[in-house]
Fold Adrenoceptor alpha 2A.
Amino acid sequence: RKQFNVQLRESGSRKKDIFFNGVSTAVISFPPLIPMKKETEFTRLPKREQECLQRKRQGQKTMKQEMK
């Protein structure tokens, strides 16, 4: 599991990252390597999904910092 997170950081692939975090597949079609768009997509999600995402990401704080 930890190794997988490292691979995500190195490749910087938004597709893998988003799918790994269990976000709606509609977001996957966006181009990778655009951190700003990632944040925008995240804030556009419904409040319930945002909270769910934040809970899922609590174990991936290092990954979130790398993406910023």
